[in-house]
Design brief:
Helices cover 0% and strands 45% of the residues. The protein is mainly β.
Length: 359
């Protein structure tokens, strides 16, 4: 078998050098827009406009299906191989509040709030919501999303210092939770601390299942502590310790959360993840769809009752490196390429946003 079930655990250790079996649902992609440079995140606005962050430090506007030439805003970013302008999010209760996670000169990582113009073509910075997040050449995290509870969740990387992930006084290697005003919610595990969960390495991919459970696709190690590969999907809840670097792969230890699946043979790693909530591909309903960078594929992960039921691979090496993946308000699944990030092949069309549809 290509899969080995970890003894006495619910974690599947995927040993295949193909990352798993081929997908069984007939799907294809259509191009939404081309001409982007390392698109990292999307934010969907009322009326159909879409904001796109480009890692070099620009927020771009997609209006009536066309990419506007002039950026909505530009940021001077700090020197970092994987940092820059990363996650963006719009407050679902106030569409003029734009949130950015960015590596700024220093370098250091910040969560900022901006005020978006009514026509969506410009923005002014209001405040720094969160600072003191260490930046590294690698592992900056950067994904930000509003959760079902209306709070803003922030994924921070360990900035190549694994021990930070277990240090509750550090903002690195964490899932943090804030209000839209930048305050610490009452329900956080530690009073006055933005920490919501700890023990993550490089969280660029998370969402919530239909029952509200937080699900994370995290990067596995690339040499630190003598460890390699083992990207993972893990379910998390308030105050939990998701294990890094104390455990990795399918290892178990009391008080730490073992993943649902860990890929052993080759690195995936996850660039983004979204739970499929559309109706166009009914077989995918409720599945976690993970966009991968090095493996250049979509990974469909089926989770039922807190257990891994199945996983399968789509679009193997068809479109290059894949980063952000998100459901649109109209129920479409969009995924962005990341072929101009210095690790892929950046052609004349540069990076694209693709739409996944039934074949």
């Amino acid at each position: 078998m290509h899969i080995l079930l970890a003894l006495l655990a619910t974690c599947l250790l995927e040993k295949s050098d193909k990352w798993g079996p081929d997908g069984t649902v007939a799907v294809k992609v259509e191009t939404v827009v081309r001409g982007l440079e390392v698109p990292w995140s999307f934010a969907f606005l009322p009326g159909g406009d879409v904001l796109i962050s480009e890692r070099p430090g620009r927020v771009r506007l997609l209006h009536n299906g066309k990419l506007e030439a002039k950026p909505v805003l530009t940021l001077k970013t700090g020197e970092s191989s994987e940092g820059g302008l990363l996650g963006i999010a719009i407050n679902p209760k106030n569409s003029r509040q734009l949130f950015l996670f960015a590596t700024i000169p220093g370098p250091t990582n910040q969560l900022q709030r901006w005020k978006l113009a009514r026509d969506h073509r410009s923005a002014t910075r209001q405040k720094v919501m969160l600072s003191g997040i260490a930046a590294g050449r690698y592992h900056d995290g950067g994904r930000i999303r509003f959760g079902p509870d209306g709070m803003l969740y922030v994924g921070t990387g360990d900035a190549t210092k694994p021990d930070c992930a277990q240090d509750k006084s550090s903002k690195n290697g964490k899932i943090l939770r804030l209000t839209a005003e930048g305050k610490i919610p009452r329900g956080n595990p530690i009073r006055g601390n933005p920490l919501w969960a700890l023990g993550v390495r490089n969280p660029e991919a998370f969402d919530w299942l239909e029952d509200g459970t937080f699900v994370l696709a995290d990067h596995g190690p690339s040499g630190e502590l003598g460890r390699y590969t083992h990207d993972r999907v893990v379910l998390g809840h308030r105050g939990q310790n998701l294990g890094w670097p104390t455990i990795y792969g399918c290892e178990e230890k009391e008080g730490l959360v073992t993943p649902l699946i860990s890929w052993e043979s080759k690195a995936l790693p996850p660039g983004g993840a979204a739970v499929y909530r559309g109706s166009a591909i009914p077989e995918w309903k409720g599945s976690l769809i993970v966009a991968s960078l090095g493996a250049e594929q979509l990974q469909r992960v089926v989770i039922e009752n807190g257990e891994l039921k199945n996983h399968e691979v789509y679009f193997r090496q068809k479109f290059g490196r894949l980063r952000e993946i998100s459901m649109t308000p109209t129920g479409e699944l969009w995924v962005a390429t990341s072929n101009c990030d210095g690790r892929g092949e950046c052609g004349p069309d540069k990076d694209k946003i693709l739409r996944v549809v039934p074949q």
